[in-house]
Amino acid sequence: MSAASSAVPDSPATGAIPELFRGLFDDAAVFPPGNLPIAEAVPAHRGHRAAWYAEAVGPLLCGAGRLGELAAAVAGGAAVAPTGTPASGGAAEGGAPLRVGLVLPGGSAELGPALAAAAPFELAGVELAVRDAAEAVAALDRLLPPDVPAAIELPRELLRGDGLGEVLDVLIDSPYRAKFRTGGVVAEAFPDEEELAAFLTGCALRGLPYKCTAGLHNAVRHTDPATGFEHHGFLNVLLAAQETDRAAAAAVLAERDGAVLAKAVHELTDRQVTVIRNSFTAFGTCSITEPLDDLAALGLLPSTPQPQEDR
After folding, report:
1. In sequence order, what are the residues at sequence separation of 6 or more whose Cβ sits closer than 8 angstroms to the Cβ of residue 212?
2. Integer Cα distance of 68 and 113 in angstroms
């Protein structure tokens, strides 16, 4: 990798969020394994959106079946965020509607009703889980407002072998991203390096953007000491996102030395950062602060909050 320019400042004490991490962390606090109650997730999300690291934070993700609960929590919002930032009634982020990413695990049949139920919120995107990519594209084309982005998730068993190329080819001519599940609550939910590398390089070769979800809340690949699960690191995925060779991508995904990954991030050029983030757009994490703490420990973000005037 070239060291022509530095994507991350040598000294992160300015408090700025580097372009590589802006909008990367979608707030999946209400999903497993976090399972934060919605009544607590709303003020917590408002706290993140008011914090010095707000530029790193994406929308609050919510399943279609919980939109009523979310609306009630927002309407009755007298809670105080963990940071001490008071909630602001039915609005968030200085009076703006709450930005919500709509997650539809039940497929295209949920899309129309969920879009109607999401009307009180600023709809930041839709994530649709289906078994038929062409059917999902047709449903989104028919029902989704043109200014709302969407990602299509298919079961991993359909993305193996020749199936991967067939699915990605369906999406390549659409305005929609792919979505890939990188973890879960059982060991089998975690793809190995080869499987994830096949997806990443398949997307890279087609110029197809994607998001990931689950199991990526730490920066560096590791074995969870409590569960024994093999977790991919989001830094590994970011760096692998620029690769078009499957073996090279798998090697990056297998790296377990945080210092090696941090050095590679420092050496990224502005063009490489653009390529990476045009590919890997975001991932859902049940913790916002944990990935930020990892980046701080690696010297890629400030370790302490910065004054507003520094942002």
Report:
1. 179, 180, 181, 182, 237, 280, 282, 283, 284
2. 12
The string of pLDDT tens digits covering residues 155-165 is 999 998 889 99
Q: Give the C-alpha distances (Å, rounded to integers) separating 128 from 26, 201, 207.
A: 16, 22, 20
Tokens of 285: 């994490």
Question: Which amino acid makes up residue 68?
Answer: G
Place of tokens 């193996």: 160
Distance of CA 243 to CAs 104, 240, 281, Å? 30, 5, 15
Residue type, 193: E
Q: How far apart are CA 173 and CA 208, in angstroms?
A: 9
Q: Output the average pLDDT for the chain.
A: 88
Contact between 263 and 272 under an 8 Å Cβ cutoff? The reply is: no
Q: Is the pTM of this model over 0.85?
A: yes
Contact call for residues 113 and 64 (beta carbons, < 8 A):
yes
